[in-house]
């Protein structure tokens, strides 16, 4: 197994995606270090993990003991230097290229030479993020869908320099998380958002022209094309902000 050497996963950014990915890694029996600059975000992230696992307990997918042991495998920290001995970092901070580059640069100084740096970016070039480090061969995109514990897809994005062994390790790791893996070249939006964002854009134009209400547009797609094709114009301002960043 290409990812057998991976024992400890670091997750930077304990928000919606980071907490979900930390949960996935801990569920796969890996030790996890979850870092965020914001102590409250970390506490929220840990609560999200506990609450998501309790739903699996209710559905009898997990026992309460397994859920408790999973939470215990996640250590929360506000200090990036605690990432020193992790094998793979999955970066999940806000979709801001300058911020991600700064964090990649800092992690590059902290991590062991063999460690892999993955980003959960929705659309930022992996090649450009890799250029902020001295280890471009070990930088890769690992784009999870929201919410990570539920959605099956992980889109793996190879930068211009990404090494074949790094790709194999990260693909194998995503499979240990029980995910379906696709591989995208490093183009804006990769595969998923390249196709999804124009559709969401068009939905906003339809709204602007008064073709339908947000609720009618949102209802149209799951009902017309299957439950999973959701646009969610009527969703929270937070989700709309994320879409604007992409
Ligand atoms: N939300 C989605 O639907 C979704 C889906 C797929 C991918 N993504 C991508 O995942 C990433 C995170 O998105 P999210 O929705 O989880 O955002 P979020 O706002 O919920 O979480 C981001 C977290 O990053 C933390 N952060 C900011 N600066 C930091 C720093 N310097 N060091 C450590 N932590 C820092 C924030 O405190 C916050 O807790 C983005 O790149 C986004 O494009 C999001």
UniProtKB/TrEMBL annotation:
Database matches in SUPFAM superfamilies: 6-phosphogluconate dehydrogenase C-terminal domain-like, NAD(P)-binding Rossmann-fold domains
InterPro entries, A to Z: 3-OHacyl-CoA_DH, 3-OHacyl-CoA_DH_CS, 3-OHacyl-CoA_DH_NAD-bd, 3HC_DH_C, 6-PGluconate_DH-like_C_sf, 6PGD_dom2, NAD(P)-bd_dom_sf
Reactions catalysed: a (3S)-3-hydroxyacyl-CoA = a (2E)-enoyl-CoA + H2O; a 4-saturated-(3S)-3-hydroxyacyl-CoA = a (3E)-enoyl-CoA + H2O
Keywords, ordered alphabetically: Oxidoreductase
Domain (3-hydroxyacyl-CoA dehydrogenase NAD binding) ranges: 9-186
All copies of domain 3-hydroxyacyl-CoA dehydrogenase C-terminal, residue ranges: 189-226
A Pfam short name: 3HCDH
Domain of life: Eukaryota
Family listed: Belongs to the 3-hydroxyacyl-CoA dehydrogenase family.
Name the UniProt record assigns to this protein: 3-hydroxybutyryl-CoA dehydrogenase
